[in-house]
Amino acid sequence: MAGASVRDFEGIPDFPYEVESEDGGARAGALQTPRGRVLTPCFMPVGTKGSVKAMSPERLRGIGAEILLANTYHLALRPGSETVRRLGGLHRFMAWDGPLLTDSGGYQVFSLRDTVRLDDAAAEFQSIYDGSHQVFTPERAMAEQAALGADIVMCLDQCPPGSAEEEVLSEAVERTTKWARRCKRAHQERNGIGTDGPQMLFGIVQGGVEVGLRRKSVEKLLEIGFPGYAIGGLSVGEDTSLTMETAGLVASLLPAERVRYLMGIGDPGGVIDAIAQGVDMFDCVLPTRTARTGTAFTRGGRLNLRNSEYAVSSEAIEADCPCTACTTFSRGAIRHLIRQKEILGLALLTEHNLAHLARLVREAREAILQGRFAAFHRQTRGSC
């Protein structure tokens, strides 16, 4: 385990973040965590229930993954955060010795909005597993994440749909602010320590695509003070033309010395666009979910390997990709595995899509460091 000094930010752990280079709005940096350095920009593979689907820890390391994400809502219900703690914490549970981030469950509250009851006190809903009545408060979100023991933890927030009216968005900003204050207090009461050591707490900016509300959300979170900030409430059904515009606005309002995380972005074009807006970290289930439909990310766009045109193709998915799928199997062979629902086919495409994104953000980082990101952005975006 690589060591890193942990600073103090108003009574909660603050992992050092350094911006190494800027090129336009894009940034290349490094986040120093107790479990190793995370070079940014970076994409975080998602292990919703404690596992990145079809990927072993060794393969994740092999594609260059430095940090993973897991889901507090799902793990709190199955197998339970206390069970994970008793089994040694989430790092041991996932057999992953690198940095981990857990979300707070706020997005799951959004996805259950037809059955959830929300007020300033808590979010109440029925478990998707057994129908049991569940109450998520900011304090519970912090307690669950402390028991899980991830290195980076998130405040509980209210994430309204992209189609929400301004009144609903305004209410979500107010509630997210109140919950952020309670999350920070609960985190401070534990001295920012979880099952596996210090935990860095991120606040989450809400406000839909309303400029005034986004500014208000940022201002209020800055008043509370967090060592890192996430941009939430995007890619939830809003007009896609406003997604990056809003992300760029929020990034420009956040402190330059604080790491920035855009939640729920995982398509290659979107990731590159977000890097151009000054965002450092990303996550999404899209690469793994897309792989399970038989679709591969490539430099020339997406390939649907279920199509008959690939039945006798001896080509690799991408000739210059170092993943197992591309160095070992042909398109035709992978098509056969996918169509026959062979687990190996899903695993190969999953590895490829994650490797594609990992390579993309590494190349973006190099372009920033070399002062040629604008050209890289144009060239890459045109082929996504």
Structure description:
With 384 residues, the protein is an alpha/beta fold. It has a single domain, classed as TIM Barrel (Alpha-Beta Barrel). Helix content is 41%, strand content 21%. It has 15 helices and 21 strands. The chain has a 9-stranded parallel sheet with strand order 6-19-18-17-16-13-9-8-7. The chain has a 3-stranded antiparallel sheet with strand order 3-4-5. It has a 3-stranded antiparallel sheet with strand order 10-11-12. Helix 7 (166-189) packs parallel to helix 8 (211-224) and helix 14 (343-369) packs antiparallel against helix 15. It is globular and about 60 Å long. It starts with 6 loop residues before the first strand and ends with a helix.
- Strand residue content: 15-25%
* Class computed from helices, strands and strand pairing: alpha/beta
CATH architecture: Alpha-Beta Barrel
Largest sheet, in brief, is: 9 strands, parallel
Shape: globular
Low-confidence stretches: none
Order of strands across the main sheet:
6-19-18-17-16-13-9-8-7
CATH homologous superfamily (4th level) name? Queuine tRNA-ribosyltransferase-like
Given the structure, what is the number of helices? 15
Distance from first to last alpha carbon:
36 Å
Count of all domains: 1
Give the C-level CATH assignment. Alpha Beta
